[in-house]
Amino acid sequence: MTQANLVVRSWLYRGASYASILLAWLVLSAWLGPKLMPGPGETWAFVQRELERGVLLVQVGITLQRVLLAFALAMGVGLALGFASGRSQRFEGLLEGWVALGLAIPRILPIVVAYVLLGLNELAAVLSVFLIVLPTVVVQVREGVRTLDPRLFQMSRVFGKGALEVLYFVAWPQLAPFVWGTARATLSLCWKMIVFAELLGRTSGVGYQIAFYFQMFEMRGILAYGLAITVALVALDALLAWGGQRAGRWRAREATA
Amino acid sequence: MTRVVLQELSKSFLRGQEEKKVLERLSFALEPGQFLAVLGPSGCGKTTLLHILAGLEDYQGQLILEPRPRVGYVFQEPRLLPWLTLERNLAFALRRPDGAKVQDWLRRVGLGGYGRYYPHQVSLGMQQRAGVARALLIEPSLLLLDEPFSSLDELTAQQMRVELQGWLAQTAATVILVTHNPLEAAYLADRVLLLSRSPARVLAELEVPFPRPRDLEAPELWQFARSLVRCLEAGA
Q: Most exposed of A187, A222, B22, B113 (fewest Cβ within 10 Å)?
């Protein structure tokens, strides 16, 4: 089979997968009725109405802003901590209790605790989500750092390479596929948690809108806002997946050699 | 060119609670431009010795490298960066970019048309050639060769030994070759240092009594190599 055929087939499978979701939605809507489960058409009409009112884009934007802030914080701090704990057993030991606690704790707890301690504000929402996702970033980056080939660092030292050159030419290409993979997982976790934090204690954002339409028992609103943020984040995820593919090209080349 | 002097140099590693001695009071001196082969059984600490000379390991005793060397190192395996092309791998070793020099060395080691290839796209022998070129293009004053042909098939290794003689004639570096192949030592080196099993001690230091260029097929070279083996066996 030619490469072009393989690509076409791969896209066909993807298309079939999305079509099956749409079909399941239609079946569920027909079975439960439009009040309990509005179909794609009714939901799209609601989306259009919210777009015309100028509310949907603003609310999605607010949520995205919070998601990206928590994501950037978690990736920045998580990369530094993960790198340090992957390189130093002592540091890993010092961090281990915190990481274990962070991974084990029920994810709703930091949100509730932050709202109690800091009040129902932006800082509490973003900070709590940052704390929820941070241990996952640390663990994944740490595992990536452990796979770095020490022989290449040795070679770089022999040839007198400086720290920045080693980081750029030796460490980053090995670490990049892990970092992009971690970024995807982190983004996914961040937006779920932010929507949850908004639902619990904010007066704006997609989570708040979902809570609002839940109280109104308006399924169209719940689905419309859920769908809008999902589409936005699928687009962002696709961007990260593309970046991850580019970063991992050399591994793929080696694997197929 | 670098003068190398080792006086009572020792090295130990900590394995759990236990201290394992690898090198024991090694002493030898190497004048600038000389070629020394270090011959010893596998696992006796030859690579550790090179790591010390390259500044990768600490040690006890005294090590004098005069003047401060520019070290070129050929590893047992090519150790190229898989995400860079061969020419960029060579350029990586340079302090300042010099495309002409990179191309020149690629040509000299027979990789003229392969600069844009990635390491996985060429054979192991070609990768090792690139490793040799990377070590030589920085114009090292001290060149360390760590069993550079041990990962190659014998035919390729033999060919590269012959070629290495030619490449080395173009440098003025002091060279230390670590090997467990007595014929390789006899063929390439001015002097051979024989090491015992771990912890490595100096068993003997011999001059190689043949002018250059040498012939790998010469019976006296083989005879000399056999005498090296006998010395090693006597030491063991």
A: B113
